User: Fold this.
Amino acid sequence: MTVTIRTLDELLQPPVTAESNLNTQEYYVNMGPQHPISHGSLRFVARLDGETVKQIIPAPGYVHRGLEKMCEHLSYRQTIHLTDRMDYFSALMGNWAVSKTVEKAGNIEVSERAQYIRTIMAELQRVQSHALWWAVLGMDLGAFTPFLYGFREREIISEIFEETIGARLTMNYIQPGGVMYDILPDFAAKVKKVVAYLKPVVEEYDTLLSGNVILQERLRNVGAFPAEKALAMGCTGPVLRASGVPLDLRKIDPYGVYAKAEFNVVIGTKGDSWDRYYVRIQEMRESLKIIEQLIDNIPEGAHSTTKPNVRVKLPEGVHYDHLETSRGILGVTIVSDGKEATPYRMHFRSPNYCNLWCITELAPGWRLADVIAILSSMDLVIPEIDR
Assistant:
C-alpha cells in the first residue's frame, strides 16, 4: 500500500489544470448582466468545478445601440455626440478621436490654443477616470470607503467640466477644428487649485488602499498576463502596459501638445492584477505632471477654426486615426465616398472590446472570487464594447 502525503498548501491552492481527483460535476453559473458585478450590463457564463473556474465566456450585447450605423446618417460634426455615449469616462477622448480623424482627412487646421485646451481637458478626465476606477475596485473587493473618496474627486473635476462645457458626464465638446466653447478667464486658476488638491489625494489613495494586506493578497500574482499574450490579443492601455509593454500613443505618436510635456510611460513587470492596479495609480501622478506643465502656457488665439454648423466633406477613401483614452487605443476608421457630408461607413476600434477577451485566458484555474478581482483590475466600460 502506498500513502500519498499532501500539504495543506496544496489542498488550498486551485488546481493547475481543470482535472480533479475528486468525483465532481461541472456546472455553469451566470455572472450578470446586472450592473454592480460587471461595471455595466455584461454577462459572463462561467464553467465551474466547485469554485474553480474552468472556462469563462463573455456574452456582450446588452447595451448595443447601433452607434456605428447611426453615424452613416449624421454629419461628421453630429457624430461627435455619439462618442461620449461609448466610454463615458473618456468622453472627451472619444470626441477628440473622431475630430482628429476628420481633421487629418480634411486637412483642417487646429489652433495651438485649442490643442492646449484639448490636452489639459483629456488629462483631467484621465485622472477622473482612474480615480473612479480606484473607487469601484475597492468596493468590488469589499472596501466601501474608497468608493466615497473616489466620487469626491470625480465631482471636483466634474465642476470644472460643467463650467466650461455645460455637462458632467456625456460631454460633447471637442469638434473638428477646435473646441465648442472657449475656456473661462479663471479656468487656469481653478485647474491649478484642483491639481494642488489632487496631488496629496493620490498619496492618500496609496495610504488607504495600496498598502492594505487584504488588497495585496487579492491582487498580487493573480491573473498574470505575459506581454506576448497581451499583444497577441490586441490589448492596449494600462492592461498592456502592466504587462511591461511601453505602448502609449501620447509618447510614441504624439498629438495635441503632448510633445511639449515631460512625463513617463508607466509599465509593470508581471502583468498581474496588482500591476494593472498600480500602473493606474502612477498614471494619475503623471497626468497631474502634464497638466502642471501646460496650464500656465495656454496661448492666445481662436478656440475653433470652423463654425459649429459647418458641413465637412472628406475626400473619397478610407481614413484612419487614433489616440490614447483612459483604457487604451481608440481607433476611428471613416470611409468616405467623397460626395456626401456624411460618412459611408464609420468604425470604432474599441480598447475595451479587445481588453475584455483577456478574461478568457486569465480566468481558468482561479477561484470565482478571484475573477471579480481580475475583472475589476481591467477597468472595463461596457457601452464602448457594445456600441
